[in-house]
Amino acid sequence: MSELTDAVRERYAAKALQMAPGGVTGSLGLACDLTDGQRAQRQAEWRAVDAAALLTRAERSGTVISTYRAGPATRAELTRLVAAERVCCGTANWALHDDGAELRVTVDAASGACCEDDCCGATYSAEELASVGIDATASLGCGNPTLLAELRAGETVLDLGSGAGLDVLLSARRVGPAGHAYGVDMTDEMLAVARANQSRAGVSNATFLKGTIEALPLPAASVDVIISNCVINLAADKRAVLREANRVLKPGGRLAVADMVALAELPAEVKRSLDQWAGCIAGTIPADEYVSALRAAGFTGIDVEVTREVRLDGVAGAIASAYIRATKEPTKPA
Ligand SMILES: C[S@@+](CC[C@H](N)C(=O)[O-])C[C@H]1O[C@@H](n2cnc3c(N)ncnc32)[C@H](O)[C@@H]1O
Question: Cβ < 6 Å from ligand 1: which residues?
Answer without folding.
Answer: 8, 12, 139-141, 161-164, 166-167, 184-187, 190, 212-214, 229-231, 234-235, 280
